Amino acid sequence: MAGVFYFQSRGYAHRDIKLENFLLDQNFSVKLCDFGLCKKMTRKDGTKKLLKTRLGTLGYSAPELRNSGEQRYDGIKIDIFSLGVTLFMLLTGHCPF
After folding, report:
1. For 2-92, CATH number?
2. Residue 21: pLDDT above 90?
3. 16 annotated active-site
4. Model's pTM, two decimal places?
């Protein structure tokens, strides 16, 4: 999780955090992969921008992404929600929904 928080501290949102996007290296360190949906969350002037594109895996998605319409969302908060779902699945062996 430290890698995700570092990534977010640099102003980026992954937007597709799920079990399938975590890998183990030869030392059994956890690595996050698949940055294809990654998005910079700050503008050039340093202000935070909100997103509207619905991306990611539905089972790991926050309620904001499931709502229809033009509701904008904070990509970093979506990542934190997806991390919670991932942790839940690791601990229980099933999806929380």
Report:
1. 1.10.510.10
2. yes
3. yes
4. 0.86
16 and 5 Cβ atoms separated by less than 8 Å = no
DSSP per-residue string spanning the chain: -HHHHHHHHTTEE-S---GGGEEE-TT--EEE---TT-EE-B-TTS-B--B----S-GGG--HHHHS-SS--B-HHHHHHHHHHHHHHHHHHSS---
Amino acid at 54: R
Q: Catalytic residue among 16, 34, 74, 79, which?
A: 16
What are the tens digits of pLDDT across the range 52-91? 888 888 889 888 887 766 788 999 999 999 999 999 999 9
For the chain, give the mean pLDDT.
89
pLDDT greater than 90 at residue 38: yes
State whether the Cα torsion 57-60-65-68 is positive or negative.
positive
